[in-house]
Design a protein that fits this description.
Elements: H1 4-9, H2 15-27, E1 45-46, E2 52-56, H3 64-67, H4 75-86, E3 107-111, H5 124-140, E4 146-150, H6 152-164, E5 181-184, E6 187-192, H7 197-200, H8 207-221
Parallel strand pairs: 2-3, 2-4, 4-6
Antiparallel strand pairs: 1-3, 5-6
Helix pairs in contact: 4-8, 5-6
Length: 225
């Protein structure tokens, strides 16, 4: 019987995405030309039974598509894992490559899509095709108490997967805004801008703004920790 990670890695649902991942792995970026790229769908990373779920958009072409670990090897990952470390959810602030000793506490990091898309743009059909993996995680992670969604697309993908997983409905339906908080039956959804270069280099998202969301998750989980 295959594991959830094995099913993701072997996925062939989206021809365009699979072709792009392979092409990026073949051509490579000059800075990484001596490295062997992963070039396949990227599974989630973290503990088996999390209380915190972090949901991003998709692997970076020269980040997770290169390293094989989600949010690893690019600037977005640098922001994410520093925030997780600062708030006690990771044993170190850097995520350089798979096998570098990084461990998460109480946390899983996942994405709306598991393949790197051309120009960071996914089609509606590709998001729909990848949704069952997130649905399965929401059904499997029964101890889940908090989720942080990074960006509007991740927010919308999470909302659709949440409903498909048979989880209790939010009332009213959650709307995305940085710093927004939505709660239902002991579960809290927190929203943040994605730590992409487009947001961090323009000042739309600062370290203080980003870390504040993770500190809120830390406070929400504190009584059980």
């Amino acid at each position: 019987m295959t594991t959830p990670a094995e099913r993701i890695v072997s996925c062939r649902r989206c021809t365009r995405l699979r072709a792009h991942c392979r092409e990026v792995a073949r051509v490579k970026r000059r800075a990484y030309r001596e490295e062997t790229y992963w070039g396949k769908p990227v599974p989630s990373f973290g503990v088996r039974s999390p209380r915190l779920l972090v949901v991003g958009l998709a692997p970076g072409a020269h980040g997770a598509n290169r390293t094989g670990r989600i949010f690893t090897g690019d600037s977005s990952g640098d922001w994410l894992y520093r925030a997780l470390h600062t708030c006690g959810f990771a044993n170190r602030a850097e995520s350089v490559r798979a096998g570098d000793g990084l461990r998460l506490k109480d946390t899983v990091v996942t994405c709306a899509a598991r393949c790197a898309p051309p120009q960071n743009k996914l089609t509606r059909e590709e998001l729909t095709a990848c949704r069952p993996y997130l649905v399965e995680e929401l059904q499997r992670f029964r101890r889940l108490r908090v989720a942080i969604v990074l960006g509007r697309i991740a927010h919308d993908a999470f909302g659709r997967a949440w409903v498909a997983a048979g989880r209790p409905a939010f009332d009213p339906r959650p709307k995305f805004a940085h710093g927004a908080r939505h709660a239902v039956e002991g579960f809290v959804l927190l929203c943040s801008y994605h730590p992409s270069r487009q947001n961090t280099q323009t000042g739309r998202l600062s370290r203080a703004m980003f870390h504040a969301v993770f500190r809120r998750a830390q406070r929400l989980l504190q009584p059980e920790r």
